[in-house]
Amino acid sequence: MGEALRQAQAAADHNEVPVGAIVVIDNEVIGAGYNCPVSSNDPTAHAEIQALRDACNTVGNYRLPEATLYATLEPCLMCAGAILQARLCRVVFGARDEKAGAVGSIANLLQSPLVNHQCEVRAGVLGDESTRLLQEFFAARRVRG
Predict the structure, then answer these.
(1) pLDDT score at 145
(2) For the whole prediction, is pTM greater than 0.85?
(3) Residue 45's CB: how many other CB atoms inside 10 A?
(4) Most buried in the list 6, 29, 61, 76, measured by CB within 10 Å?
(5) Which of 48, 74, 98, 120 is an active site residue?
(6) Mean pLDDT over residues 22-41, rounded?
(7) Residue 48 falls in the annotated catalytic set
């Protein structure tokens, strides 16, 4: 999760909402990414999607059934859908997203009986650190106007 936080800081350094993610198999990081929809002009360029793309390229397959995704923020509906498509076995995240989180806040897509795959989920890992990074980013933006 520390590496996911470093990815989130990289997003903040690029003036993007500080969310980071990594994908791990057998304690090895096989994919990493941070939020960059603004700079890439791509609404799908969320940290989780970036990390999944990187991981899939690393292993040469669009399915990652033995992988765990670590994200600093609860995945949204789009990212949860991508996680399901990749067939990840586990998702670990830091801060809850009460407005758009789809892994327990507004929905729980990853453990829904309505979909053909479910993931183990662990919430709140380094949640305070993840929340603090987001709060500091948005506080600085309000000061700048």
Answers:
(1) 60
(2) yes
(3) 18
(4) 76
(5) 48
(6) 98
(7) yes
